[in-house]
Amino acid sequence: MGSLPTLLLWCVLFVLCWPLALLALVLWPVEWLLSLPFRLIGITFDALFALLRAILFLPARLLGARPR
């Protein structure tokens, strides 16, 4: 999600319910820190699957198959 839509949604939330908006503002960095290990695991698995795909398709690439 982009920065501007996030800011606009937060402003609307602040107008409607300011305690909840302030709580969201305080908890946002905590949520980011908690989700960081899961993002790293996702990046690792993405790299692992890319490596496996490259290894599996290496014989076809050596024999002259064209990628789509």
Protein architecture, described:
This protein has 68 residues and is an all-alpha fold. It has one domain (3-62). Helix content is 87%, strand content 0%. It is built from 2 helices and no strands. The chain starts with a helix and ends in a 6-residue tail after the last helix. The mean pLDDT is 91.
Number of helices, where a helix is a run of at least 4 consecutive DSSP H or I residues: 2
Biggest sheet: strands, sense, closure?
Answer: none
Which segments are poorly predicted (pLDDT under 50) over 5 or more consecutive residues? none
The secondary-structure element order is HH
Class of secondary structure makeup: mainly alpha
Which strand-content bin applies to the residues? under 5%
Report the radius of gyration as a whole number of Å: 22 Å
Q: Overall mean pLDDT score?
A: 91
Number of domains: 1
Distance between the termini: 30 Å
Write the layout of secondary structure elements.
Layout: H1 3-16, H2 18-62
Helix pairs in contact: 1-2
Offer a few descriptive terms:
elongated; mainly alpha; 0% strand; single chain; 68 residues
Q: How would you summarize this macromolecular structure in one to three sentences?
A:
With 68 residues, this protein is mostly helical.
